[in-house]
Amino acid sequence: MYRHLMKSMALTAFAVFAALPASAQVRADIGPLHIRIATEAPPPIRYERRPPRPDRDSVWIAGYWDRQGDQWAWSSGRWERPRDRNVRWIRPRYVREGRAWRYEPAHWSHEQLVEGEDYQRWKHDHDRDHDRRN
Q1: Does 72 fall in a domain?
Q2: Could you give the count of Cα atoms lying within 13 Å of 111 in the half-sphere of its Cβ?
Q3: What is the DSSP pairing of strand 33-38 with strand 113-115?
Q4: What is the mean pLDDT of each run of 10 residues along the chain (134 residues)?
Q5: Is residue 23 part of a domain?
Q6: Is there a domain that residue 109 lies in?
Q7: How many CA atoms lie less than 13 Å away from 32 in the CB half-sphere?
Q8: CA separation for the pair 93, 125 (Å, rounded)
Q9: Whole domain around residue 104: which residue ranges?
Q10: What is the reported pLDDT for 86?
Q11: Is the whole-model pTM more than 0.90?
């Protein structure tokens, strides 16, 4: 009985771990993505060698700098399958705004971008400072 139970648990664990790499390639639909503000520019883009395409439906997503918390974090390039043929990958945008950098995260075209709280606060303070000077 004990041996049968351990064998079943081991097979289940193996199945779960075997499925992890496949699921790691797909972004979960977690709601809107937030436009952020950073006080420093993103570092230079890193060179990455593109591995062979795994299948004809996969799209290459080049590596990019992502804003996580208060720092830049590298997101490595990878192959992903779009959830349908009508969506396209949109690279991140880094736009200088005065002394700061507006960061629009990379996303699929069907995903929604909204202004994050840090960006809204910065924009409100920036607009108020601009009004005082004029």
Answers
A1: yes
A2: 22
A3: parallel
A4: 50 41 42 88 95 95 94 96 92 93 94 89 75 55
A5: no
A6: yes
A7: 10
A8: 22
A9: 32-133
A10: 92
A11: no
- Does the residue 24 lie in any domain? no
Q: Which amino acid is present at 96?
A: R
Number of domains in the chain: 1
Provide the total of helices (H) and of strands (E) in the chain, helices listed first.
2, 10
Rg of the chain's alpha carbons, rounded to an integer?
Answer: 21
Structure tokens at 61: 């997503």
Alpha-carbon distance of 110 to 90, in angstroms, equals 10
Closest by CA position to 77, among listed 90, 64, 87, 65: 64
CA pseudo-torsion sign 38, 102, 30, 28? negative
CA dihedral 14, 58, 55, 17 (to 10 degrees): 0
User: Contact 59/89 with Cβ under 8 angstroms?
Assistant: yes
Distance separating alpha carbons of residues 38 and 69, to the nearest angstrom: 10
CA distance 39 to 71: 10
